[in-house]
Design goal:
alpha+beta, OB fold (Dihydrolipoamide Acetyltransferase, E2P), four-stranded mixed beta sheet, 4 strands
Length: about 100
C-alpha cells in the first residue's frame, strides 16, 4: 500500500514539474521569429494611438525600421520613424 501511494505521489509531482517547465514555451514556435513590422503606415495616424509608450524596431531581415505604437483596437501600429507626426508623438511619450 505504501509503495502505491509513493508511486502515485511521484507521478503527480512529475506531471506538475513537466507542466511548469513547459509553461514558458507554450506560445513559442521553434524556428519561427517573433512578429515584426514588415511595412510602415502611410499618413498621420495620431488619432489611433493610445497609451504613453512606444517601441523602436531596427531593420533586420524582413523587418523594417519602425516605431511601434499601441492602438485603440489593441493592435500595433508600425510607423515611419522619420515622419514628423511620429517624431512629435514620441517626444511626448516614453520608450520601452
Amino acid at each position: 500500500m505504501t509503495v502505491k501511494i509513493l508511486s502515485i505521489t511521484l507521478l503527480l509531482l512529475s506531471v506538475c514539474v513537466c507542466c511548469h517547465s513547459s509553461e514558458g514555451t507554450r506560445h513559442r514556435h521553434p524556428g519561427l521569429k517573433p512578429p515584426c513590422c514588415v511595412d510602415i503606415t502611410k499618413g498621420n495616424k495620431t488619432a489611433e494611438v493610445v497609451g504613453e509608450t512606444y517601441r523602436e524596431q531596427a531593420a533586420s531581415g524582413s523587418c523594417v525600421k519602425a516605431i511601434i505604437f499601441n492602438t485603440k483596437d489593441r493592435k500595433q501600429l508600425c510607423a515611419d520613424p522619420d515622419a514628423q507626426w511620429v517624431k512629435d508623438l514620441t517626444a511626448k511619450m516614453k520608450k520601452v
